Amino acid sequence: MTVSLRVSGTVRVPGDKSISHRALLITAIAGGEARVRDILPSADVHATARVLRALGIPVPALTSELVLRSAGLAALRTPTEWLDCGNSGTTTRLMAGVVAGRAGLTGTFVGDASLSRRPMQRIARPLSQMGAEFTFERGDGLPMQVRGAALQGISWRSEHASAQIKSAILLAAVSSGVEATVYEPTRSRDHTERMLSACGATVEVLPDGARVMAGASLRAVDVDVPADPSSAAFFVALAALAHGGELVLPDVCLNPTRTGGFDILQRMGVQLRVDHERVVGGETIGTLVVAPNTLVATSVRGDEVARAIDELPLVACVAARAVGETRITDASELRVKESDRISAVVANLRAIGVDAEELPDGLVVRGSDQPLAGHVITHGDHRLAMAFGILGAVPGNTITIDDPACVDVSFPGFWDTLARATQARAPAGTSTDAASNALRRLIVAIDGPAASGKSSTSQWVAKRLGIRHVDSGAFYRALTALAVRSGLAPEQWTETGVLAEAGRVSLGLTERSVVPLVDGERHEEELRGAAVTAQVSRVAVMPAVRAWVNDRVREAGASTDVVVDGRDIGTTVFPDAPLKIFLIADPWERARRRLVQRLERKPTDSEIAVETEELVARDARDATQSRPDPSAITIDTTSLTQEEQVERIVALAEAVRGRPHPPSTS
Ligand code: S3P
Asked: If you count Cβ atoms within 10 Å of the first and of the last residue's Cβ in the chain, which end, N or C, has fewer?
């Protein structure tokens, strides 16, 4: 049976990453108070918030409507810690500009492995010429120490069309109150110029660059962050690759320096209409309505490259399905992004069976309609994960992705959104659940009554399978920690109050588990601490909180293979999990195991009897929740060791995964 992909519905993509960074940073240096709506709470923007906090700016949590109050440049202090920019080039280069312009301020910028490899001399050269001092431990890249100074003005001709270079220079000039002019080979995105000008700076747009005049006095302005066109592009591409249907993408930023990707995809055939176009806060926004069409190859070069720079990996993936040969040239900047996007895209296209070739400054892709199958290595690059994820959502393609969670850098919730966009109503006889088709994850859902050993068995199973365990309890703890931090007495906590802070909690991946991040950080000690432990059950009984945690667990399962345990996992959270296990054991045995764990010694029979009574009573209370899903496999563990239970589940999971059961190594 031929399967087809229909798309449908409204896809709200999160806030624009470039504008989100600048909303925090420019408000912080302008001073005053600004309301920022719909900021992108992604890992990269958390990095900017973190660096600003380290420099003394009280950036609040990244909620959908935050108010940032800052005393402006004067509030900046030399940090006592490293400025950890994570994966974010924009954070590093723009913040380095700000620090460079402040005499007396010194900061050392560090980042993850990918960011540490990216070139920083491209900003150090102009900023040093202005008078700042840069020290590199390794010639280029991070760690990079920036010592600020009272700078001189500059007129700089950049070799690269890079908004980060341009912004670093303009922000350094603003920071020192001097004039700067930046010329660039082709125009890069201009959000810095627009926002500085909205805050009262005099910014001149030149035919080949931008100038900021000396001595402006800035004042923060409110920012409504529009949806990110670079994130929307994935769903325009999804519509392009579909066989039917239509997607609606509201409030997308249509700044002309950002719309190259849409132009290219339109040229390749996707039907794209803009409705309700308007200007909000100096940026044009509109609703995109996109539908599929036959795709043809195209060429991308020259000025269009900068306008589509972040979308080019996606264009290359769409080209794999277009008739003819697509050529992208003049794009050597792609080599210094989160990964070398020329070699990584070509290697991955080849790995899934596409005819693709590297050029020094671009790539060539020859399209086909052959099914594509293989494993994608993202190098932690969010845009690669999403571009190949879109290609993987096409029925018939079987594409696995090594690190799906890296999408959190710019698009938390991407896999969920993709799954929803592809759950179109199918015409009879077709299967359209393409996201689950392409992203078919190994989800092992383990349920069972109290003290059945779900949690420890799940962790062990995850380890044996080499996949991640979802610590759903930790998500309740994260919300509890935020409630504790609010300072309100626990008796006054309400469901609405607790959930109001939930936007601060996102998914984080460690090697072996999916954990909550609060404002982008682990906070393990706080989450396990006594204050949280004492109150977590108060939060965990709130129905809307349970629903919220269930959504996070689903999100985890959509982004990576998982083992997950809990009371309603197989029935409510993952009714379609490919493997559901229901662990049971005789109450006496469960009571005995629980006591061994608690007392760390052999319990007496009378102790076991008391505990058994308690468990039986609890079973009766839980009867509705702990009924097994009819498709679950029940394992009676009464006479099994934990290792035996684990091995049984692992064998079942390997069978589901279609692989032979490897010998035990643990
Ligand atoms: C960005 C500028 C671009 C872009 C990046 C975001 C920005 O980088 O690729 O995702 O917000 O200024 P370059 O300036 O290196 O081209």
From this structure: N
